[in-house]
Amino acid sequence: MEETAHALGSARTLWELVTRRAALTPHRPVLLQDERVLTFGELRDRAERTAAGLCAKGVRPGTVVAWQLPTRIETVLLTVALARLGAVQSPVIPFYRDREVGFALRESRAAYFAVPGEWRGFDFTAMARRTGARGVFEAYASLPDGDPSVLPAPPASGTDVRWIYWTSGTTSDPKGVLHTDRSLIAGGSCLAHALRLSEDDIGSIAFPFAHIGGPDYLVMLLLYGFPAVLFEKFALPDALDEYRRHGVTVAGGSTAFYAMFLAEQRKRPGRKLIPTLRLLAGGGAPKPPELHRAVVREMGCVLTHGYGMTEVPMITMGSPDDSEDDLVRTEGRPPAGMEIRIVDGEVRLRGEAVCQGYLDPAATAAAFDADGFLLTGDLGLLTDSGHLVLTGRAKDVIIRKGENISAKEIEDLLHGHPAVGDVAVVGLPDEERGERVCAVVERAPGAADPVLEDITAFLRGTGLALHKLPERLEVVDALPRNEALRKVLKYKLRERYA
To answer: Which residues, if any, are the signal sequence (predicted)?
Structure first.
């Protein structure tokens, strides 16, 4: 099984990987949604027909096609069809609206834009018209269809830019990140090989497929030949029935997903939330050690966490074979093709999974050092075993009276406080100190609001240095998050409390 997966990972293009898998296991399921099942053979065949329909619309190799669609079987078919044509596709997260969508369409110069029509009470077609989008077509319940005999030859090169993904744009306009088929295959391969999965597993995609994690997961399914349940709308406890009905063995998404599953588990202690679940896996945000221990202890499954970003879809990934300490404290190890260099505490990356840069050449020039390593802005260190430990973000270092304070260190400790459901620590401007430490706490369900004296006493009990103690505490019902992997938006907290 492992040898087959590694052999498939040598495919030059995503379409080649699809056809190789379809030839091996044409009748095995790959996508499950509600009562629908799509096999690997049907994925190949239906994607070819969709590619032919797109070709009839005028889509050709190199044509830029943007799409803003929910996580559905049709969405995966469309993206595979575009890969068959060798088009350049620009996925847009479904929760973005006029400003972000208009920016992405203008910057990418998209000639076509696929939307779901009206979805969850919002008219995407009308928004597309408002933004001046070209070639707008709906691709929710049905897709373009045609005769595959008219198709040009599939793309032969996997190193041409065929994907434009968008950074979250939390502090400015988003940046268009340039990827190739090979960079996405390399990222998905890292995830797949680390998790030690088999064709007997049942996965799940509960996050937007338009996120960079979408192709990560699709590549993993193609390499190992197992299916995933798709969730067009993810909410707990409503989604639990689908996890149980399909017998999901692997779930996750990001740290926020772990916390949501754990909160549901605590409503029914002693009874496993998802009986078949053996592994939670994800990334996209820091993983507090105390949350990791609680998930493993109370949910009765393994938790592996990884490190990735839009620019590098998978950098490191924890493995079920790792020691407990490595699983709790680190982000896992990189694959053989990923070089990690620590320069002045910053993590820098070079390897096949690294993007080709940005649409803006100036942003590309600023993002890479003289040796071709990507500057991540993340702080970390490598252990003797090659595991990566992230210690925070460069911009999350709070400088108080000339002393550097890691926001992540304080956050990890506060996750052990019973009244803290989640927490974000930020630096706020202070004329005397330069910056002061502010902890913004999302209260735990059923807990009373903590007070600053209680929080600082708890942190003193952990041995935290006195100069790192928060000087301000804000308690909120919910921290502001993005809609993809529910990552906390610290810039909004800084704006709110500065």
So the answer is: none
- Reported as a single tens digit per residue, the pLDDT across 80-135 is 999 999 999 999 999 889 988 999 999 999 999 999 999 999 999 999 999 999 99
Beta-carbon contacts of 62 under 8 Å, excluding residues fewer than 6 positions away, are: 86, 87, 88
Q: How many CB atoms lie within 10 A of CB 364?
A: 16
Joined tokens for residue 27: 């009748």
Calpha distance 253→59 (Å, rounded): 33
Calpha distance 48→51 (Å, rounded) = 5
Q: Which of 377, 395, 413 is the last residue of a domain?
A: 395
pLDDT digits 0-9 by tens, 180-195: 999 999 999 999 999 9
Asked if residue 86 and residue 132 are part of one domain, the reply reads: yes
- How far is residue 424 CA from its own chain's centroid? 20
The answer to whether the CB of 420 falls within 8 A of the CB of 449 is no
What is the CATH number for 232?
3.40.50.12780
CA-closest candidate to residue 405, choices 395, 416, 415: 395
Same domain, 384 and 493: no
Domain tally, the chain: 2
For residue 95, how many other CB atoms are within 10 A of its CB? 15
CA dihedral 87, 26, 215, 362 (to 10 degrees): -30
CA distances from 442 to 252, 391, 405, 459, 481 (A): 21, 22, 21, 17, 12
d(CA 114, CA 106): 15
Query: Cα separation of 166 and 156, whole Å?
Result: 25
- Look at residues 372, 395, 418 and tell me which one is the last residue of a structural domain: 395
| H or E segment and range at residue 349 | strand 346-351
Q: Choose among 129, 126, 116, 133: nearest CA to 69.
A: 116
Q: Please check whether residues 118 and 172 belong to one and the same domain.
A: yes
Question: What's the CATH number where 470 sits?
Answer: 3.30.300.30
CA distances from 408 to 46, 329, 392, 396, 413 (A): 46, 13, 5, 8, 9
